[in-house]
Give the backbone structure.
Amino acid sequence: MSRLRAVGVFAAVLAGVLSGGCGGGGSGPAALTIDSAAPPGGTTGMAYAGFTFTASGGSPPVSWSATGTLPPGLSLSPEGELSGTPGIAGSYAFTVGASDSSMPQQVAGQSFSITIADTMIEVAAGAPPAATAFRSPPPSANACSIKRNLCSSATPSSIRPCAST
């Protein structure tokens, strides 16, 4: 009879464990939810500071994906890190998805948007460079008068008289 009683106790314990789980109350992991704030904006041509999405609940590890339009040059890693160098300014809307490793797998999704600003071009303040003055000859000038003006700084031996007109 003691052998029969031991089998009965074992069966009762086993039934309790199977119906209630291993100390979890039978409900499994908490629901998977994405609890990240919106990612910060970026600037074209500058490395994005990096942003990691976070989730709570579910069974780790959590795998991440994105649908919609990420800014060109940015990508989302399976670990949830948004990184890269944005190439085109604009506002981009996308959905981030998270899936855990539980069976059955839990999934969660949340929509986000991010704004990428154009690179700012700075112009130095100050006066523009000095200009060079040019004086055109008067309309009444002929080739000889222009030549005399040009040759006036030449040496005397290089000056040739103009033919009279």
In short: The first helix runs from residue 2 to 20. The beta strands are 33-34, 42-43, 51-52, 55-56, 63-68, 74-76, 81-84, 90-99, 107-117. The CA atoms of residues 144 and 163 lie 8 Å apart.
